[in-house]
Amino acid sequence: MKGQQMHQQARAQPIIKLLFQPNLRRQLCQNLAKPAPSRFAQTAHMGDLEGPHRCHRPYGSIENVDTLKNDVVPPPNPLLDPQPQPDTQSLLQQADPLQPRTQPLQSQDQPFPQPSSQLEAQLSQLQDQSKLRNDILPQTQSSQQQDQPSSQERFQSQPSPTNNETPTIDDQHRSYTDEDSAYDDTSSITESITDTLDSAYSRYRYENGRRYHSYCDGAYWGPNDEIHNDQQDIAHHAWKLALDNQLYKAPITNPDRILDVGTGTGIWAIEMAEEFPNAQVVGTDLSPIQPTWVPPNCMFEVDNVTAEWTFRKNSFDFIHSREMFGSIADWDGYFRQCYLHLKPGGWVEALERGVKPESDDGTVGPDHFWTTWGNTVLAVGEMWGKGFDAWELLKGSMERAGFVDVVQVPMKWPIGPWMEDKRMKELGMWNALRLDTGLEGYVMRLFTMAGGWSYTEVQAFLGKFKACMRDPKNHGYLPGNCVYGRKPLNTPTNLE
Fold first, then answer.
1. Rounded CA gap, 445 and 435, in Å?
2. pLDDT digits (tens, 9 = 90+) for 40-49
3. What are phi and psi of 449, to 5 degrees?
């Protein structure tokens, strides 16, 4: 007998849970409003509920309902259920499908019956106790059923205490989530700043079918599209051939910090970071076109070399630049910046090549088109305000800045594979490929913006240069220099 009672109580427990949960109680009333099941049905379902609240009982087993009537119902918890509790006996009578339905069921728009006197006394006692806890007990809602407010609405409806107020229990236990306004404001500000910076650097400018940088617009003549970036990688390989498969000529040993000015695609900085894994390599450029998959000791920054440098002075062991012709108007000022930011004993290295082809056998004379080409580029460069004769200025500017042990390594860049030396022949092939496919990017903006040429005139001028490249009788080459120097060891660190 005892086991049967326990079994009946266990089966009645889900229904008791339904009575004290507002949402589930409402769903129960809606389901009871449906037509009563047939008396010949074998089972009756207490609501179309899912999960742990779904239960079945034999149809006509009135003992189950009687047992529920005699069970001791726990008192309501006003903290969890702000609604007045309904009369248990009345609701159970409505829930019994065997009882005739002489009265309509309670609708959502009508209030439930008022609680008994015992429940009223308990509720009054809890209300008195709540005053000691800053009225944590919510006020009784109106008779119309309303859904519980969300956590964000509850947070916004309760203002935070001022500096002179003591925080309430709600304030102390308030759950701050990502939905709170403070988090939303911070994230929106961060996203706005990030989007602004990204758009300022990556909202590129397009001219004559080519893409150019937007940061410090017009400071550099070369495009930054994929065609030109491929030419920079080809130039990197050609420079390594010209330097006997080396990345630099300066006698540096175990550098801590390396700066690559005008890094372009960042290929030189990446290879230096791999060669010196204990050094920090920083590459700067006007365009954020560098890859993101780089060694952990390599980083890139968008910066203008002609502006005031923001790096800490006396912080670099090696400063490197390559093919900055047409980008720097004051080479003396550039090397002074390098001098200030190098550690005592640090090295600076600059590699530049010319734009006017020459020859040792007279095949490129004063009347040759390549000579006309070179003179034109130099003249338009002067109109641009930044000359293309940097390869001749490096040594003097470096010495005037205060560097010592300055070394100049001259080199030749043959146009085509006409030289006998194997390494120079390969260098000539790569140089010819670079000029044939990338020469338009070198002069299009320069000639149209500074020289006032039309797009058609530039293309016709390029065609003549390429025609000369295909003539094997022309043994022309582009001159260049690799110049490096050292900052004296006895230099004061507070030098400005």
1. 16
2. 334 334 334 3
3. -85, -50
Residue 409: CB atoms within 10 Å: 14
For residues 210 and 44, give the distance between their C-alpha atoms in angstroms, rounded to a whole number.
77
Q: What is the dihedral of CA 128, 129, 135, 136, to 10 degrees?
A: -140
383, amino acid identity: M
Place of tokens 């000359």: 387
What is the rounded CA–CA span in Å between residue 290 and residue 266?
A: 6
How high is the pLDDT of residue 494?
60
Residue 327 has pLDDT above 70, yes or no: yes
Are 58 and 37 spatial neighbours (Cβ–Cβ below 8 Å)? no
| Per-residue model confidence (pLDDT) at position 154 | 40
- Between 95 and 266, the higher pLDDT residue: 266
Say yes or no to pLDDT of 180 above 50. no
The full DSSP string for 367-406 is TSHHHHHHHHHHHHHHHHTS-S-GGGTHHHHHHHTT-EEE
Residue 250 in contact with residue 285, Cβ under 8 Å?
A: no
Is residue 160 a contact partner of residue 171, using CB atoms and an 8 Å limit? yes
DSSP state of 347: E
User: What average pLDDT does range 142-162 have in this prediction?
Assistant: 43
Residue (of 262, 340, 268) closest to 301 by Cα position: 262
What pairs with residue 410 in β-bridges? 481
Summarised one tens digit per residue, pLDDT across range 97-107 is: 444 444 444 44
- Distance, in Å, from the CA atom of 260 to the CA atom of 349, rounded to the nearest integer, reads 10
Residues 6+ apart with CB under 8 A from 272: 247, 248, 258, 260, 279, 281, 298, 320
9 neighbors 71 (Cβ within 8 angstroms): yes
Average pLDDT over residues 196-209: 70
Find the angle CA(45)-CA(50)-CA(56) to the nearest 5 degrees. 25
Angle separating helix axes 369-384 and 455-469, nearest 10 degrees:
140
Instruction: Count CB-CB contacts under 10 A for residue 22.
Output: 16
Two tokens, residue 231: 């030419």
